[in-house]
Amino acid sequence: DGELPETERAPLRGHLQSCPDCGPEAAALERLRDDIRRSAPVHRAPEALRSQIRFALRREAAASTRPVAPAWLAYAASILLAVAVGSGGTFVLLGDRQTDTMAGEIIDSHLRSLLEAHLTDVASSDQHTVKPWFAGRTDLSPPAVDLRTEGFPLVGGRLDLIAGKPVPALVYKRREHVINLFVLPASPADHGETVTRRGYNLRHWDEGDLGFWAVTDAAPSELADFERLFRAATGG
Question: In terms of pTM, does the model score above 0.70?
Fold first, then answer.
C-alpha cells in the first residue's frame, strides 16, 4: 500500500524482483487494489459535515495556540483588580483588559482564516443565503448586508471560534483586502475608535444585543467607512 518508509522499500523491491513466488503475488495484489479503486463508488461528504470538520479543526488550532497565563500573572492581576476596586477604577481596568484579550482572539481567528485559505463556509453575496446558513449553528443571527455598491462586497460567511464559543463571521472585501466581521453578544469593551494590534486594524461597535468586531489590514479610514456604511445599511 505504499506506507513503508523509504529505507525499507528498497530491500523489499529487490526481493520482489528476484523471488519467483512473492513477485507474482505482489503484482496480483496491486492489480486487485487498482480494480477496487476503479470500481468502488466515491461518496463526497455533505457540505454540512465538511463544515463541521473544518470548524472542529479551527477549534483545535485555537486551543493549541491560545497562550496560558502563568500563575504569577494571574496573581498580579488579582492584586491590580483589588486595588482598582478600592480606587473606583474597576470598569476602566476591566474594559482595557477585555478589549486587549478580545482583540488578540479576533486577530488570531482572522489570521487562521487567511493562512488556511478558508474564508467562508457559505460563499454568497446574498443575505438571504448567508444569514439563514447560521441558523442552528449559533445562537446569534448576523445581518448579512451586501455593501458591493459602496465598495465593500459581501463574500460569504463562516462559523468561527472566539473565546471558546462558536460565532458568526461575515467576510467582506475592500479591493484585495479581506475584512472579517465577527458577531458576538454586545459587550462593554471600548467602542468607536480604530485600534491597531500586530499590524491589523480593528473596530468594535454594538447594535442592540449584538457586538461587531471588524478586523483587516486595510487603512483605518477605510475600516471606519465600512463601519459607517454597515450601520447605515442595518439601521444601527
Answer: no
